[in-house]
């Protein structure tokens, strides 16, 4: 028997409010909704939202920094409302109910006051959304016409549910809502974006159903925001997907991603798609793609600037939404005369509204500009071509134009056509379109999240360069992301890189520039700016960073285990801030470091701020290999993987533990061994491990240029680290391991190995 708590209703602030209204799903699970409607009986069109941010959590409590800035800079947002019912990224019922609408907020499965298992954007969640729409369309107080409205998550899932064509869905407003789960959100150009794992920690786990007494209370109803039962951490974990790990497990655009993306041919409902020029890294691509590709005959595009959430609540945004919904849900108003496209064209100091009939603009003059070897950006190709190189983890290359002679408007999508080669089997390209003042100061804008967002960005992993020829346009390359095509080191390939749409009016005397980098853009000055709902400092890309940029490596310059991780990071093209733990001074046993790694050994790797550490060098390297597949550091076949792991373990697990600082200290203090005796011990066990490896290399046909054929693997990293100890630390005679020495020499020709050498680290100089 299904037992449901009754909904609580009351008249307050000019509205009839029903709290926790039950909505039964087809599998028997009961979702909870709050309903706000006019006090007079009647049938009203519905504005519905469905999502995980907890309907009972006040905007002011959950997102204080965003709220405070918005109301300080835009007094029209709080004006005319008590603001008691404001919630993150959904409409304020105090401004919509007086307009003759019923507002319904549903906590999605597993979030807020709705029980169940959280699995974001999954088919199950989309089906729940469908059923909520149909429920709302059939209530006695409903006119039968349901509109969807909301920002971000509450916009993304509109694309998905529209693909199912709910009969009562009459119109939707997707305000800054991405669409393609792979291309827009999780893998920019095939490069993993770290945003979602961090978002999950701060914006979902904090309002999961079952936090109960450990969670917040509604400032209006007094109810527990996250359900009346209080579950253990173990129970909470069992009731949610491993979101970050799920994304990591799907590096290509497979069925996992396709199930969380819209089917454009099935999106036929009228809609208003509102994008943000400054939303680089998440939403605007979906808003533009939706407008261009959805099958709907009645569709409109609006594009604005400033913060992600602000214009949804300003009079500008709210009035636009009302005109749209009045037309489709009430059959009144002047929306029929609204041009298909409304742009806030971006100038240096203002936005200028302009209406258009299509996107991209039909009158666009497509201009080619060419990169010159001397760093110039010109309208004509260079007389002769020449290679220019940059370090993957450096600042890249910037090509800059002559000053613009007369005012120029750049409004639309961009694309970069590059010929590249790499010393590795893959390369991540970060392309940034920029504008500079006459005295070469960069022009940035308040973006959707970051206060110093560049004009436009694009991304591509070189191994994902394969194009979908049917969907590719000259102005928007479209990559399949269905296979990895590794580079051949030193061999050039052609890359077509999508740069997300933008708008900027460039004054005379200013310059255009294109930067090509191997890592995320960073604004030249760091201000330390942060928002309460993000982990990272805002440095130009907001929270939309890519694997490695937020990592911290706790290690020591002399540590061979740290060296192994340092090499793996370099091979993967990843950057980690290295934090020194001085083993010679015993700092690994300090209280601060034991809080990071209770074992008191290095290395430890922090993937993102506030996240748990990874420890043990081989475990760290395997994690990096799984999350950043190119270049692969393990063979594809099970037998090959087992062999490589075995060789690596001889060095890292059999040999290395016998030469660590704690062993040396024990030999000195407990065994009373002098330095000479200790060194003989260290040299003996170092060579025993190397000789065991040499025996495998000599007698197994899999040995090639490297330990396992011609593929560089974790075994080579471990062999090289062991030989560094033998040669640089213990002065061993290595003539008995010629194959290992050959591999050592081959690897040391590679920057990843040679630059990571302990004796080349800056801290090494202080000890010599």
Summarize the structure in words:
This protein is an alpha/beta fold and 768 residues long. The protein has 3 domains: 8-356, Rossmann fold; 370-517, Jelly Rolls (Sandwich); 615-767, Glutathione S-transferase Yfyf (Class Pi), Chain A, domain 2 (Up-down Bundle). The protein contains 22 helices and 25 strands. The strands form 6 sheets. It has an 11-stranded mixed β-sheet with strand order 1-2-3-5-4-6-7-10-11-12-13, with helices on both faces. The protein has a 4-stranded antiparallel β-sheet with strand order 16-21-18-19, with no helix packed on it. It has a 4-stranded mixed β-sheet with strand order 23-22-24-25. β14 (370-371) and β15 (377-378) form a beta hairpin. It is globular, with a radius of gyration of 29 Å. The model has no long low-confidence stretch (mean pLDDT 92).
Concise overview:
The protein has 768 residues and is α/β, with parallel strands linked by helices.
- Silhouette: globular
Unreliable stretches, pLDDT < 50, 5 or more residues?
A: none
Q: CATH superfamily of the largest domain, please? A: Alpha/Beta hydrolase fold, catalytic domain
Proportion of residues in helical segments: 25-40%
Q: What kind of sheet is the major sheet?
A: 11 strands, mixed
What would the average pLDDT be, to the nearest integer?
92
Just give the CATH class of the largest domain: Alpha Beta
Number of strands: 25
């Amino acid at each position: 028997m299904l037992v449901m708590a009754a909904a609580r209703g009351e008249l307050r602030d000019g509205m009839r409010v029903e709290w926790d209204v039950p909505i039964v799903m087809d599998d028997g699970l009961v979702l909870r909704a709050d309903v706000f409607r006019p006090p007079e009986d009647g049938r009203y069109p519905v504005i519905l939202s469905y999502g995980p941010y907890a309907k009972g959590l006040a905007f002011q409590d959950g997102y204080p920094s965003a709220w405070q800035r918005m109301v300080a800079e835009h007094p029209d947002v709080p004006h005319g409302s008590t603001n008691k019912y404001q919630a993150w990224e959904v409409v304020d019922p105090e401004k919509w109910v007086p307009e003759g609408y019923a507002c319904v907020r549903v906590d999605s499965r597993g979030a807020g006051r709705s029980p169940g298992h959280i699995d974001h954007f999954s088919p199950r969640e989309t089906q729940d959304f469908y059923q909520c729409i149909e429920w709302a369309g059939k209530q006695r107080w409903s006119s039968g016409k349901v509109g969807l409205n909301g920002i971000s998550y509450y916009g993304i899932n509109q694309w998905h549910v529209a693909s199912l064509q709910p009969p009562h869905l009459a119109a939707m407003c997707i305000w800054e809502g991405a669409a393609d789960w792979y291309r827009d959100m999780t893998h920019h150009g095939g490069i993993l974006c770290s945003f979602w794992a961090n978002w999950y920690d701060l914006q979902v786990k904090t309002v999961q159903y079952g936090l109960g007494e450990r969670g917040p209370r509604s400032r209006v109803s007094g109810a527990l925001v996250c359900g009346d039962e209080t579950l253990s951490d173990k129970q909470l974990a069992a009731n949610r997907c491993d979101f970050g790990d799920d994304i990591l497990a799907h590096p290509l655009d497979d069925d996992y991603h396709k199930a969380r993306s819209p089917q454009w041919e099935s999106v036929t409902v009228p809609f208003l798609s509102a994008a943000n020029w400054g939303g680089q890294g998440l939403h605007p691509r979906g808003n533009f793609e939706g407008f261009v590709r959805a099958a709907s005959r009645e569709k409109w595009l609006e594009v604005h600037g400033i913060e992600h959430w602000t214009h949804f609540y300003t009079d500008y945004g709210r009035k636009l939404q009302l005109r749209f919904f009045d037309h489709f849900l009430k059959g009144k108003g002047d929306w029929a005369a609204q041009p298909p496209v409304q742009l806030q064209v971006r100038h240096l100091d203002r936005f200028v509204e302009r209406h258009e009939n299509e996107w991209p603009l039909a009158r666009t003059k497509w201009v080619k500009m060419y990169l010159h070897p001397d760093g110039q950006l010109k309208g004509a190709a260079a007389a002769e071509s020449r290679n220019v190189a940059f370090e993957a983890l450096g600042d890249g290359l910037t090509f800059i134009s002559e000053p613009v002679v007369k005012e120029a408007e750049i409004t639309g999508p961009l694309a970069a056509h590059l010929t590249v080669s790499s010393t590795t089997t893959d390369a991540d390209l970060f392309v940034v379109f920029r504008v500079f003042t006459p005295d070469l100061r960069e022009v940035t804008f308040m973006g959707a999240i970051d206060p110093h967002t560049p004009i436009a960005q694009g991304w591509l992993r070189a191994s994902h360069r394969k194009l979908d020829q049917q969907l590719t346009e000259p102005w928007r390359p479209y990559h399949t992301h269905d296979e990895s095509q590794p580079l051949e080191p030193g061999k050039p390939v052609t890359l077509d890189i999508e740069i997300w749409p933008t708008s900027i009016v460039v004054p005379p005397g200013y310059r255009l520039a294109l930067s090509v980098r191997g890592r995320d853009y960073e604004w030249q000055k760091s201000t330390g700016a942060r928002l309460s709902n993000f982990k990272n400092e805002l440095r130009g890309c907001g929270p939309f960073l890519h694997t490695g940029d937020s990592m911290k490596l706790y290690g020591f310059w002399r540590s061979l285990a740290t060296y192994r991780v340092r090499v793996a990071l370099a091979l993967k093209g990843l950057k980690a801030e290295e934090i020194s733990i001085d083993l010679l001074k015993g700092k690994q046993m300090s209280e601060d470091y034991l809080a990071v790694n209770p074992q008191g050994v290095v290395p430890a790797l922090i993937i993102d701020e506030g996240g748990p550490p990874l420890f043990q060098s081989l475990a760290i390297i395997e994690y990096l290999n799984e999350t950043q597949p190119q270049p692969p550091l393990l063979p594809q076949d099970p037998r090959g993987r087992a062999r490589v792991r075995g060789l690596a373990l001889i060095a890292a697990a059999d040999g290395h533990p016998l030469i660590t600082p704690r062993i040396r200290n024990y030999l000195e203090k407990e065994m009373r061994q002098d330095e000479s005796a200790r060194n003989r011990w260290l040299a003996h066990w170092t060579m025993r491990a190397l000789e065991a490896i040499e025996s495998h290399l000599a007698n197994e046909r899999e040995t090639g240029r490297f330990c396992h054929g011609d593929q560089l693997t974790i075994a080579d990293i471990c062999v090289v680290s062991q030989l560094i100890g033998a040669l640089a630390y213990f002065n061993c005679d290595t003539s008995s391991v010629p194959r290992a020495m050959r591999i050592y020499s081959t690897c040391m020709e590679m920057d990843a190995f040679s630059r990571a050498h302990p004796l080349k680290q800056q801290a090494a100089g202080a000890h010599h």
